[in-house]
Amino acid sequence: MKKILIVDDEAGFTRLMKLTLQKTGQYEVTEENDGSRAWETARKVRPDLILMDIVMPKVDGGDAAARIQKDPDLAHIPIVFLTAIVSKKDAQPGGLIGGFPFLSKPVSLNELIACIEKHLPR
Amino acid sequence: MAPPMQTSDPLFLHAMLESSPDHIYFKDTQSRFLRINQALAEYFGLKHPSEALGKTDFDFFPSEKAEERFQDERCIMETRKPIIDKIERDAQRNGKTVWVLTSKSPLCDESGNLVGTFGISRDITLLKEMEDALWNERNLLRNVIDNVPDFIFAKDMDGRYTLSNQAHAHFLGKNSPEEVFGKTLFDLLAPAAAANAHADDVSVWKSRKPLLDKIESPAPERWLSTSKIPIFDTRGEVTGLVAIARDITAQKRAQETMEKTNAELQQSREELVRAVEELRSVQLQLIEAEKMKLVGRLAAGVAHEVKNPLAIIGMGLEYLRGQSFADTNVPGILEEIGNAVERADSVVRELLDFSAPKPMNRIPTDVNRLIRNAFVLARGEIGARKIAVEVDLAPDIPPVPLDAMKIEQVLVNILSNAAHAMEEGGKLTVRTSTHQVTGIGENISHPGNLRPGARVVTIEVLDTGHGVPEPFIGKVFEPFFTTKPTGKGTGLGLTVTKTIIDLHGGTIEMKNRPEGGACVTIVLNADTD
Asked: Model pTM?
């Protein structure tokens, strides 16, 4: 079972996402609602993929992702951004933001699973 | 029959002497009066002519005058030659000046021996005064003619100058009016100029009416204002013309300079007006840009605050979709909730697109190719309805500097809108053409950033759909205006479309067609500067 870490200050969203993903029986999901604790939680959980919100209080998703990327033990973990304020038209070629793949909220389950599966390490 | 009267007849001589108003006198060789007539006696202030006998001019005139006459008579007697019509000035004792015309001859007896002189003097004071007055008048006129700066001249019926003044002579390259007399225009001016002036002369002679203030250029870079007046003789026949001409070269140049200055001022004013218009346009764009920044910030905030709850609802729906419910209505309700989430998300997405900064990448592009691309992208909307498509793309369309992706988005929006307006089917026509703007209101309805002289490309999209209710036709480009059913349109599509066209400095307008349906006209500037 693949381990997914969801970092988002919207607790309702992370809880429902956790329930939905775990219901598929494919994923073990950990929630983190504080961006400043993302790196710490990632070190503890060692997820296979991180879903990261961008706009968060204290530390935003960009800084949190950068810190994780700088950690040699965590740098290999793929990070997918989840954002409410960026539309697909704003994305870079290849659907990236700052070099990371991203999903625009709200997101369908099919779209979410397709993206996770695409970026999970084989 | 009475015998012929003899000139020696004393009666005849007496009658002639006494009745003549002229002064008649006879003198001896010593210039002493032998006899004078009554008129001369009165002139001398004598009661009777006999009182003059034995006296001389020295008794009646100042000695200077008397001496002059005495010498004249000496000369007559010596030479035996008369003095005829000598004009003499007499100063009478009363101080009055009298002018006389005198003729004197030698007086001989029957044997031819010289016995004295005789003479006759006529008082010509009145004539002399008239002559002086006339001379003064002529002199004054001549002075005026010679000294005025205007050209004064007269001609006879052969076109020969009979009068010219100094200014006129100088204008013709002569030193004095005398050098002009007797010459014609053709002797003095270039042939074309002479022919023109001569035609005016002939016109004055024939019409017998003055020609006033004619502006002419008889020499290069010289301008005259000339008036010509016919001269009539006592029988009323035209005998020539008199003319006065003023050199208006300086005024003409000043006028030309003024006209040039006026034209330059007018041009400057137009440039200023254009600059003000452009400044106003830039100001509006800046205000618009500021507004858009605010809208952008607002949109980002709205997006964050709305899309996160939508994401929670969406994810909740995803979770519930896999569940089984005793109430069979639940799946349908979940579907409705899902549609509502999608609609709300769609509005927020378009709001983000609308407010996002729009960097332009304008390169010369084939508009016809863009239209064909747009048809491919909108084929889903068009193909889903029974719509006949007619495409009439002019082959001579010049490349237009534009952001191809954005204009393509515009075209897809308009084609999709047209398709939505023809749910029951219809005909969609797209035409392109090119022309040069001749004037706002003439071959283009409103200016945008287009100026007369600009080469423009026009795209027309015509449908046979329901059109736009007339009260709303002016609002179609306003944000959140839509004629589509609730949930079918966000009301931002045409606003984004207009913003893109505005950023290209072009124009877009929508009109209802008289035969039904709507027509969207886009005008883009094909000039690169």
From this structure: 0.41
